UniProtKB/TrEMBL annotation:
It comes from the Bacteria. Keywords: Hydrolase. It comes from Actinomycetospora aeridis. This is Serine hydrolase domain-containing protein. SUPFAM superfamilies: beta-lactamase/transpeptidase-like. Residues 24-406 form the Beta-lactamase-related domain.
Length: 414
């Protein structure tokens, strides 16, 4: 049986120059050669047909195990678009309105308070002027944050509760959501954009509304219909799991997560204690390719439809306040891509202006990435999907994503 990512189409038939495509591998091979990355897998497709699929390096350097098509990758925040699609499936069924206050299902958010000033130990807060609504979770405008950002007193409050790169060993998704609900918001709901646990809370909302655990809902409603057989919150074949590495800022080279004191983060997917809808999934390139084709196909892949075409179009519109971009309304703390010329839709970043983005792209491109430097984008204009898989934390260590865009689009010559 051939790999589902085997290149079976002539790239020239789909508008690509094969010699120019080879520049992708030449460029990123240097990342492996000089120790910036242990290994990677890159996939480029147009109209659902794979024109380029290549691997380099190792999924586990110490064990001498090469990257293969079936390598399992920690998706981290690339989980977010999948959870967002799940929520939109429930929305299409009339389970809630995007404007509904989430306290209708999560009463712990009935009276959120907002940070005004002060330290993390003695904050001054005020009541939220409006409730957190479903669309706030989908757009990261709820005022929630992440402890690992180290940029705001509220971030420190998250860390004090055990939430930095991982979560406390005790507790599940429901108890974690209750903890976050008891902490101040960084800003008034709907007024700004900030990267945080919004999609994790959205995952809990899915559980309450559907009456199913998040892993069950995703497995039944998304993974099974799309044939994503190797995607889930638990790795069933750890020998295929890529090793997690951390960037050493002093050298620019990778080091093992265990050696860097972050072994707990690396081991989470072996026995997860909670279902992180914002960052808990493990997948393969072939599986995530199916998900990107769902977005490119406006909700349908090979006759399997999960969302209406207009819903995916709406997902890919800019939903930020005033139609502004992330540079204008986002807190420039941490994200999976630059802010200039980029808006945010319902669970995905959306390119508004490639000129301001300073990168080859199409207006309306949907994308996101993960903390271990994975990334994907879906270009509805050129009908291109691209994925990059590796396991290096943080994702800001190297300009992989912008370089990959330039290399893919320079090869498009139709």
């Amino acid at each position: 049986m051939s790999s589902p990512l085997k290149v079976e189409s002539d790239p020239e038939e789909l508008g690509f120059d094969p010699a120019r495509l080879s520049r992708i591998d030449d460029h990123f091979a240097r990342y492996v050669d000089d120790g910036r990355l242990a290994g990677w897998h890159i996939v480029v497709a147009r109209d659902g047909r794979v024109v380029h699929s290549s691997t380099a390096g190792h999924r586990d350097v110490d064990a001498g195990l090469a990257v293969t098509d079936d390598t399992r990758w920690r998706m981290y925040s690339q989980t977010k678009p999948i959870t967002s699609v799940a929520a939109l499936m429930l929305w299409e069924r009339g389970a809630f309105e995007l404007t509904d206050p989430i306290s209708r299902w999560l009463p712990e958010f009935a009276a959120p308070r907002v940070y005004v000033k002060g330290s993390s130990s003695k904050p001054l807060t005020e009541p939220a002027t409006e409730p957190i609504r479903v669309w706030h979770l989908l757009t990261h405008t709820a005022g929630l944050t992440y402890g690992f950002q180290h940029a705001h007193p509220v971030d420190a409050m998250y860390r004090a509760k055990g939430f930095e790169w991982s979560a406390p060993e005790q507790g599940d998704l429901a108890t974690h959501v209750e903890t976050w609900a008891g902490l101040p918001l960084v800003f008034q709901p709907g007024s700004e954009w900030n990267y945080g646990h919004s999609t994790d809370v959205l995952g809990r909302l899915i559980e309450v509304v559907s009456g199913k655990p998040l892993d069950t809902f995703l497995a039944e409603e998304i993974f099974a219909p799309l044939g994503m057989t190797a995607t889930g919150f638990v790795v069933d074949d750890p020998d295929r799991l890529a090793t997690l590495y951390l960037n050493n800022p002093a050298t620019g080279r990778y080091v093992g997560a265990e050696a860097a004191g972050m072994g707990a983060l690396a081991r989470e997917v072996l026995a997860p204690t909670w279902l992180g809808g914002g960052g808990g999934l493990v997948s393969t390139a072939a599986d995530y390719h199916r998900f990107t084709q769902l977005l490119l196909g406006r909700g349908e892949v090979d006759g399997v439809r999960l969302l209406g075409s207009r819903t995916v179009d709406y997902m890919g519109r800019n939903h930020l306040p005033g139609g502004l971009d992330l540079e204008q309304v986002g807190r420039p703390l941490f994200a999976e891509m630059p802010f200039d010329g980029v808006g945010f839709g319902l669970g995905v970043a959306v390119v508004l202006d490639p000129v301001r983005y300073r990168t080859l792209a199409s207006v309306g491109e949907m994308s996101w990435g993960g903390a271990a430097s994975t990334a994907f984008w879906v270009d509805p204009v050129e009908r291109i999907t691209t994925m990059f898989f590796t396991q290096l934390v943080p994702s800001s260590a190297h300009p992989i994503r912008t370089q990959l865009r330039g290399l893919v689009y320079q090869a498009l010559v139709d």
